[in-house]
Q: What sequence folds into this?
């Protein structure tokens, strides 16, 4: 608790992440959080909300863990963001660090496959966002850019082919950004498919995957349109023969992050993180 006032005024700290087991003085603790959330977001992972967890906290810290309902209510009152585990804590902090301050209600989703589109729509609705249809003019312009057959310019946009060149994706995303109703774009990149090319041309997957070109393209669109991106780097390949894919995706992640573009492993987790950003800034704007 003593660190909160320091980080609240620290100019280099954009978001504060906390793992909490128990507190000695509830009034002081939540007062400090409230004062901090008026300046910047605070993300809290409260451990020990289960019965077994409470027993562990008493053993570990000799402090009271409190009930789930009380913690949820109080954290909501002070506009702190509560997450369920450390992974969600890291994802929320990533979104707060890389996305400009604001509320993102309408999103566009670009990726491959109808199932991903359905997942995006369902997740967006769960977290108070929408994936609205693009205007007819923009949809027609997008469809002219996409490869045929199988693609669709309806939001979510189905590119149908995982090997669409970054320069084409750049034009697609630049065109979508023209739609005034879109606040934020999500691109689901299936870079792991490039592993197939390694068997044909005999080069490592990191050399044949255009992740650097894609990062440069997305960065250019953000600078031009002023609308942020979230990147999802999916990877269902988890076997021992796929370690080269893991390495390539780590390199790709570094390229995106170095350009200020947040990267997530999963579409649902990405939308949930954006939802946390919306929750915080909606409430802060309401009381400013």
A:
């Amino acid at each position: 608790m003593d660190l909160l006032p320091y980080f609240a005024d620290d100019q280099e700290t954009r978001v504060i992440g906390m793992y909490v087991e128990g507190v000695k003085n509830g009034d002081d603790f939540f007062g400090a959080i409230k004062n901090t959330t008026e300046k910047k977001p605070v993300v809290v992972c409260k451990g020990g909300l289960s019965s077994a967890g409470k027993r562990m906290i008493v053993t570990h810290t000799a402090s009271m863990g409190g009930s789930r309902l009380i913690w949820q209510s109080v954290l909501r009152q002070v506009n702190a963001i509560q997450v369920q585990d450390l992974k969600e804590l890291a994802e929320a902090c990533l979104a707060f660090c890389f996305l400009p301050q604001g509320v993102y209600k309408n999103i566009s989703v670009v990726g491959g496959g109808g199932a991903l589109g359905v997942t995006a729509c369902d997740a967006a609705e769960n977290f108070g966002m929408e994936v609205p249809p693009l205007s007819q003019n923009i949809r027609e312009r997008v469809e002219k850019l996409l490869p045929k057959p199988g693609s669709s310019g309806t939001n979510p946009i189905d590119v149908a082919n995982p090997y669409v060149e970054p320069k084409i994706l750049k034009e697609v995303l630049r065109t979508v950004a023209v739609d005034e109703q879109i606040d934020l774009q999500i691109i689901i990149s299936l870079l792991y498919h490039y592993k197939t090319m390694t068997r044909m041309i005999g080069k490592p997957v990191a050399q044949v995957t255009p992740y650097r070109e894609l990062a440069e393209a997305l960065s250019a669109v953000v600078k031009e349109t002023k609308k942020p991106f979230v990147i999802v780097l999916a990877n269902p390949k988890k076997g021992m023969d796929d370690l080269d894919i893991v390495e390539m995706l780590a390199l790709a992640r570094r390229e995106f992050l170095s350009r200020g573009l947040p990267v997530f492993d999963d579409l649902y987790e990405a939308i949930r993180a954006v939802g946390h950003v919306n929750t915080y800034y909606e409430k802060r704007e309401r009381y400013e």
In short: Confidence is low (pLDDT under 50) at residues 51-65. The chain has two domains: 3-84, 107-287.
